[in-house]
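Q: Convert this sequence to structure tokens.
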Amino acid sequence: MSTEAAPRTPSPRTPSAVDAIAEAYVARLAELDPVSATFMGLSGHDHRMTDLSPAGHAARADLDRSTLDALDALEAAGGADELDAVDRVTVAAMRERLGLQLETYADDEPLASLNVIESPLQALRDVFDLVPTGTVEAWEDVAARLEALPAALAGYRESLRAAAGRGHVAAVRQVRACAAQARGLAGEESFFTAFVRGGAAAAVLDGSGACQLLQGRLETGAAGARAAYGELADFLADELAPLAPAGDGVGRRRYALASRYFLGAQVDLDETYAWGLAELARIVAEQEAVAREVAGPDATLADAVAVLDADPARRLEGTDALRAWMQKTSDAAIEALDGVHFDVPGPVRTLECRIAPTQTGGIYYTPPSDDFSRPGRMWWSVPAGVESFTTWMERTTVYHEGVPGHHLQCGQAVFARDTLNSWRRLACWVSGHGEGWALYAERLMADLGFLDDPGDRLGMLDAQRLRAARVVVDLGVHLGLDAPPEWGGGTWDADKAWDFLRANVTLDDATLRFELDRYLGWPGQAPSYKVGQRLWEQVRDAARDAARARGEELDLRAFHARALGLGSVGLDVLREELAR
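A:
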């Protein structure tokens, strides 16, 4: 592999007419969707909530439509002839993303959005994890946003009701689980109570008269938020659940749209299902070989897991130790990779590892704000009562969420202010590109020698096996495909999927049950990890073949720099641009 230095920062470019259209889109989107503005790290909107009513969704669809019209008008006026390479990607990516958003809007998908992990129910609560809390003014914004939350949830109910009137309702499994989530947020000791009474608030609000008034607003706002979630829980249980279909699968037409949305590419769904089964078998064979390295020539995978779990050097006790280990592992990866395999911009060298205030069992990443005042963060949502952790399963996860995974990918895009407009840096996110890259990064770290320890390598393979298994489950259930005889035969359903996952995934039952509910309620997203990795590897292999045809070896460091320099785009756009 070549280690010639790649430039740390791109040369500045003069903003173009395309950039102006993209910047105007982001500015207007932040006005129409202040919750997304907070997630993007755009300041000035943290005191408002998004209008989730049908009118709010229509306004955002109008923005998508008018932006596409502006790009068409620019092309009709001859402006397309003046596009540079950056503009060419922006136009292709905006047409792909905004066009798909309009397709989903036409199908009522945004109005009907309800699932256990990624819908307005969770977003209106999760946004409070990212708001600034270091000043009195920041807590005034929190109070205003809490006060706006009941109206946002009322609009959400209005949209769910409108979609239901046109026959579009989430499966009853999702409705009931979401009602339970809403009921938990409505409780007296819910997140909202803890948030406004917690240490972050106490550290800023000094007990003066003005702060006492603000604390009163926060308490009232938290009570209003709890009551609003209680109303949502009642609505879901009493009004929406009786209308919800019993079946979990969404069918081929809806699934095909979801798959294109999450991948930014069109794939053969039946071929992908067959590939998922074959990929799972390949990973299992590799796992079994590594298990023999861990536990002896006759060892099974279960034997190896028992050996690794019993190793005190691989155990962490308590969330403080877990967070410290995450931070140490992440920092070491950045130090080792920067200037050797990647070039990590200065602000991106900071990654904050945190224990999440939620308890779902997930591990996730949130990108830095536009000015890096809020750093990129890796969050571990530890289930209640869990105090013991194994590092052999999770080292690969730190690489997935950190560097060279999501943090390098997202942080580098945010940093590329001299080249990319705000839409490319902050607003465009394609799951197959992002999650595919992070899974690609896990395997890359193994190839680079960072997972040579057999236990750590087995952990990486365990993560890869999970992602391959959910390709099978997700496509199998939602498309109503035939299950292989060894997994029960007949048509895939939730019961077969549960038995299949328990046989292939080393998660506790409570976490795995949540994972299955996630796949059943969010069609197309879970496969975007492994299918995205596959497409990333195909793009890299095509670049390697092209280099060899020129009598050269692929400079992998330069390839990665160029690919990540595009920001998050649809995988078809990525493929087309890197083929140039």
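The beta strands are 315-317, 351-355, 363-366, 376-380, 388-390.
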